């Protein structure tokens, strides 16, 4: 940049204006959201676009990658058009565990098979049953569960062998979007750590996992750090987003670890809990590892930060089911009325326990086998007890995940929570009571998109470290457990945990009998989770 020299010989360099706005793009299961943030954490613009989750056969949950790419491009372009500031870069988050087969030209020849797809249940169960299954979980950080790409690959090899042989590369949805935006096929350590194919201790593709899947490393994208920067957009992507072609693109990470960052839970001992449609509990650690029993996952955020925890399939979807099944008279959008109904029942729901496995379950058992169940029902229970027991069941399942996090050797000093459930005062208090710890609720942030933006800012040198998230995220309220309610839940939790094992034979029999029974009814919202 030219300098201006005055006659006195003093050289003055004009101030350099560096763009400080990063757009965090979160590619979710049912929508993509693009959100622009400055380095102070201020949201400057956002836009979200949805797309369908298709269920062509029982157990299938897949999407058209092209529709997702279109949503990414359009949401970015709308945010860019609203901004008055220049954009320093894009940074990405996405749902984990997706799998897409590409041909030699990089075009999808399979749908995007999502985490919610359970067609590979039998393959996952075979992997869990062999002695090496737990060792593989400990090495890759990913449980043997149909959500994972490893059993999905086995399913394709066994059920669609001709298609399997045609695939040139197997990728995740973010990998493919970045290929279309930047012309480079890469996958970050975070997304890769959720495939069941990555040795998380060496950050290399695991040879045993590849052998089980029937593929070689050249069938997968090149591994890069989550802070890797792809320097150029393709001319078409630049045109469709309205951004300069030289706009840097930060590869980013998975939505789970980035949600921790978005809540400011980035230091060891700080747990992030989220309850949206599903739910999760994660703590950041400095070295990868899982508990001896394999009750948790371990996914990368950066090479120095790892998210240890577990996800549950059944969060807010349980409340939605309760409205449709137990209180249809309250109307379609009756969440507030349902919570008010639940508040009429006491803590513990009069001895009524619900196992909330309406869409099977993940952590800490990592089995697609279980179904929901009410236990302890008497003639004295009314629908307020049933609704409350459903909400309590979600919190109790998260408490089991938290126990597994501790069993992995992790200290839990602080819990921060977010998600749609946080709008309910009753559910906030219930979570604190069940967990037996204070729970802090940050002021609204867009979670994974904010985490993606912060990671991008660090990668681009706009902030010193993602540690600033702790200060940027403002705590709105901290809920402390009620001693009496907390004691009730503490007495019920061991029974809640025991019921899973007690009912496994019944779950097994139901699945064996299922082909001869009338067709299973559709979920209340028509979408698996």
From TrEMBL:
Keywords carried by this UniProt record: Kinase, Transferase
UniProt GO BP: carbohydrate metabolic process
GO MF term (any one): phosphotransferase activity, alcohol group as acceptor
Domain Carbohydrate kinase FGGY C-terminal: 272-458
PROSITE patterns tied to this protein: FGGY_KINASES_1, FGGY_KINASES_2
InterPro entries found in the cross-reference section: ATPase_NBD, Carb_kinase_FGGY, Carb_kinase_FGGY_CS, FGGY_C, FGGY_Carb_Kinase, FGGY_N
UniProt xrefs under Pfam families: FGGY_C, FGGY_N
Ranges for domain Carbohydrate kinase FGGY N-terminal: 22-262
Family: Belongs to the FGGY kinase family.
The protein's name in its UniProt record: Gluconate kinase, FGGY family
Source species: Micromonospora chokoriensis
Source taxonomy: Bacteria, Bacillati, Actinomycetota, Actinomycetes, Micromonosporales
């Amino acid at each position: 940049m030219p300098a201006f020299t005055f006659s006195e010989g003093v050289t003055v360099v004009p101030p350099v204006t560096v763009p400080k706005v990063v757009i965090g793009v979160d590619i979710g299961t049912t929508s993509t959201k693009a959100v622009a943030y400055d380095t102070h954490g201020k949201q400057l613009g956002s836009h979200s676009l949805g797309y369908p989750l298709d269920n062509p056969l029982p157990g299938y949950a897949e999407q058209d990658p092209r529709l997702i790419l279109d949503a990414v491009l359009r949401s970015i372009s709308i945010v860019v058009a609203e901004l008055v500031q220049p954009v320093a870069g894009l940074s990405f988050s996405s749902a984990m565990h997706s799998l897409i087969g590409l041909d030699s030209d990089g075009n999808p020849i399979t749908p995007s098979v999502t985490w919610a797809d359970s067609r590979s249940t039998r393959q996952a169960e075979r992997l869990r049953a062999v002695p090496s299954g737990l060792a593989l979980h400990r090495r890759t950080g990913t449980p043997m569960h149909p959500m994972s790409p490893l059993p999905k690959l086995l399913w394709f090899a066994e059920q669609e062998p001709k298609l399997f042989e045609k695939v040139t590369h197997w990728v995740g949805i973010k990998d493919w979007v970045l290929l279309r935006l930047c012309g480079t096929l890469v996958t970050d350590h975070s997304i890769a750590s959720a495939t069941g194919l990555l040795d998380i201790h060496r950050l290399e593709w695991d040879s045993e996992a590849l052998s089980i899947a029937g593929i070689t490393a050249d069938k997968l994208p090149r591994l890069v750090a989550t802070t890797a920067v792809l320097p150029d957009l393709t001319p078409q992507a630049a045109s469709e987003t309205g951004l300069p072609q030289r706009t840097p693109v930060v590869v980013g990470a998975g939505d789970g670890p980035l949600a921790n960052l978005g809540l400011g839970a980035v230091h060891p001992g700080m747990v992030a809990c989220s309850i949206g449609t599903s739910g999760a509990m994660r703590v950041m650690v400095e070295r990868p590892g899982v508990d001896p029993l394999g009750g948790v996952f371990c996914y990368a955020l950066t090479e120095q930060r790892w998210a240890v925890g577990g996800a549950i399939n059944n969060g807010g979807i349980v409340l939605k089911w309760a409205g449709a099944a137990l209180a249809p008279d309250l109307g379609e959008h009756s969440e507030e009325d349902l919570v008010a109904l639940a508040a009429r029942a006491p803590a513990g729901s009069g001895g009524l326990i619900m196992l909330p496995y309406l869409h099977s379950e993940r952590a800490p058992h990592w089995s697609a086998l279980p179904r929901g169940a009410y236990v302890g029902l008497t003639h004295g229970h009314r629908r307020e007890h049933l609704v409350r027991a459903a909400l309590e069941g979600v919190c109790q399942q998260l408490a089991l995940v938290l126990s597994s996090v501790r069993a992995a050797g992790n200290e839990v000093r602080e819990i921060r929570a977010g998600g749609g459930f946080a709008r309910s005062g009753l559910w906030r208090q219930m979570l604190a009571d069940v967990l037996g710890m204070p729970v802090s609720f940050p002021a609204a942030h867009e979670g994974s998109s904010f985490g993606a933006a912060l990671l991008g800012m660090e990668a681009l040198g706009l902030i010193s470290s993602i540690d600033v998230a702790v200060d940027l995220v403002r705590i709105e309220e901290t809920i402390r457990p009620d001693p009496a309610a907390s004691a009730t839940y503490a007495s019920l939790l061991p029974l809640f945990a025991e019921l899973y094992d007690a009912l496994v034979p019944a779950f097994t029999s139901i699945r064996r009998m299922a082909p001869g029974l009338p067709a299973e009814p559709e979920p209340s919202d028509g979408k698996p989770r």
